[in-house]
What does this fold into?
Amino acid sequence: MVFGRPRRGRRSRSGSGGPLNWVILPLVLLFVLASYVGWPVAIGVAVVVAALVVWVLIRKYTLSTPKAKDLYLELQNVRAMSGPQFKVFVKRVLTALGYSARVLGGSGDQGVDVIASMNGSKVAIQCKNYNKPVGNKPVQEVYAGSKHHRCDQAWVVAPAGYTKGAHELAQSVGVSLLDARAIRAWIRQVDQNERNQASSEPRVVDLDEIDRRERETVQ
It folds into this structure.
């Protein structure tokens, strides 16, 4: 299972019209609605819809669980991390997502910093915390390392992104490239998983406390 939509190769092109469509289409719908119900009602409906959209976006992008908040705070300070610290951070995020992850080290790692497993699938990961886009070399190394460690997938995790050459090579050899946006998506998924788990846990009812409150009410 892969979270955050790892990208292979070049970024997909935006559809025709782009963001302009998101401006024109609502205006057209507003004019059509106003022609039927009048402008006061149409504007009222538009305000309600806008409020609902804002509420949904706030809920989607606001982290509410301690684990996700801690990981996001670490991500904000990622540039201050050393190479080994960044590897441990990536391992912690993947572990929070449900992977079984371990950090490799030494000359025998063969270009693989972290190995993560879930549902029988094993991923070789190279972590690069550079302050500029990453080039071809990590893609080459993690691809070869994934074969050495008999992994099913190969990823590079680099918050600063990738060069055009790295995207092209990753596309041809099937390596997934993950940047800061993917890590943020992972953390949002951690938050969602934690909320789902909390909502599914049975509530513990303190009968003694209920009885005490009832006695106080009677008195």
User: Anything to note?
Assistant: The longest strand covers residues 121-127. Strands lie at 100-103, 114-118, 121-127, 153-157, 176-178. Helices lie at 20-37, 39-61, 66-76, 83-96, 136-148, 164-173, 180-200, 207-218. The chain has a mean pLDDT of 83.
